[in-house]
Amino acid sequence: MSKIADAFKNGKAFIPFITCGDPDLETTGKIVREMAANGADLIELGIPFSDPTAEGPVIQSANVRALANGVTTDKIFAFVQELRRDVTVPLVFMTYANVIFSYGIARFAKKCAEIGIDGLILPDVPHEEKDEFAPAFRAEGVDFISLIAPTSENRIAEIAADAEGFLYVVSSLGVTGERAQINSNIAGMTAKIRENTSIPCAVGFGISNPQQAADMAKCADGVIVGSAIVRLIGEHGRDAAPFVGAFVKEMKQAITAAED
Amino acid sequence: MTNPKGRFGIHGGQYIPETLMNAVIELEEAYNFYKNDPAFNAELTELFNEYANRPSRLYFARKLTETLGGAKIYLKREDLNHTGAHKINNVLGQALLAKKMGKTRLIAETGAGQHGVATATAAALMGMECVVFMGKEDTERQALNVYRMRLLGSEVIPVTSGTATLKDAVSEAMREWTNRIADTHYCLGSVMGPHPFPTIVRDFQAVISREIKQQIMEKEGRLPDAVMACVGGGSNAIGTFYHFIDDPGVRLIGCEAAGRGIDTFETAATVNTGSVGIFHGMKSYFCQDQYGQIAPVYSISAGLDYPGVGPEHAYLHDIGRAEYVPVTDDEAVNAFEFLSRTEGIIPAIESAHAVAHAMKIAPEMGKDKIIVITVSGRGDKDCAAIARYRGEDIHE
User: Fold this and answer.
1) Does the beta-carbon distance from A170 to B18 stay under 8 Å?
2) pTM (predicted TM-score)
3) Complex-level ipTM
């Protein structure tokens, strides 16, 4: 079992996402430490991709900013290695299939294990294509995290039965980004998942405020927030860390209070 | 040639968000049913013949042949189809399929605007709603086609993300599909994207080589020595190749857009300069950097300005069955002008890439040899851009 299970031992988990190198890796380091200090239970680190097809405008812009500043996969590996001197919170990479495929799947997996990455999320690798990636990561003790969407329906049982780390429950149709309302039947999805696996479920896509986070936490083991944080980074740039820290604290409190 | 997981050798596959998986599975099931349904096929043939003006002519280009002084050249006149390009073949098939599936709305990407116009046309004909995503840069290069789509009742959304060209239009259409699936079919315009699109689009475009084969047998009593077409994503090329793949005596030649040259960064010649990667739902060749970041590509032709190629082409390249050759902007523009003057046929700048390569190889082939060039579209849309390329500023 990987360190990811630890993230769900401290009540409902709060899982923030940021794009590495947005606006630069030094700022990313400050933000990660600030998030960990304010209650983040697991952190998703995005490796930017030129054409992030699952992302809405906010995270697309973060990818553009990071790549424009010259961040690369190798620079991010060096950055995480440095981060791991003092940061103990579980870390997972979120990126796209081509970033890993072009690096070499086995080589990338080995690097993850060396620098202390606990899991991997690839939004463009569904269950059908998982076997090209997951075994190399499993061999290195890195969890390949599967996603379940509002359209998954008859697919939930198969995906859940095979899941590692945690299940990423996509709250809504469409791409990442803040939403005024989340209309999917999350409780129905998580109930179906729990019939098939005991690994935790975390809900993401569209969650941007404490009330939504609390609502989602009632029917899941964790809440994932990306765009709302990335938007703060877009607004505050190199000074974003304290703003993100305060936001993480507020969100963690909201989901802790919502504990069922 | 497609195995059950939608692979062409190592290429193809379904690298898409989980949100879309049931949609592509539903599409595959529907397609597998309707492709063998006589009523569906009768309806599609009727649309092809009565509406789109098929079969398209296989025209013996006597003056072109005599001027080049080598192989006998035939032109497959997809430019004479309704809407002026081969794109209508695929669109009528997909729109009819979508309608049978109960979908009421089509979305599409477009580069030069030909696929967007074809989709808007089919949507008008079949009473469906239509939204076309087009790179902002392309909406400026192809303003007339934007107007045509709007005239046909479609909404055109200029895409400003990324490089604001075809690849970004595809990304945006995919994003829109994840947002609205229940009533919407993504009418993908080329033999690319996740399975089953490369197979579906190829099957609908295969009418091109089915007709060429029959027409050349009638005219010459034998198969051609080579068939040629331009390749962006590769739909008119796969349509031109498909029924000749099992005829080893027929050379299959795909002409890629080299832009300013394959030794420059301003190129879109994917097979010649790219490497294997995963993007837009498929494994294939892509123009990319060492970290897998998709490269900005360039070609004078908005329709070939794409950093990838369809997975079946990648496979035909891997096994050495088809040849993929680079053709520069300059060569394509020369061919655009040359065909206009010699035959009175103004080809799309995309198709001019295939004509340009024929101008290189035909003179070196014997007069007893036969080549077929697919003229995938008409060139009226390109006149302003080619005039600009030649330093003449004309206003449409």
Assistant:
1) yes
2) 0.96
3) 0.96
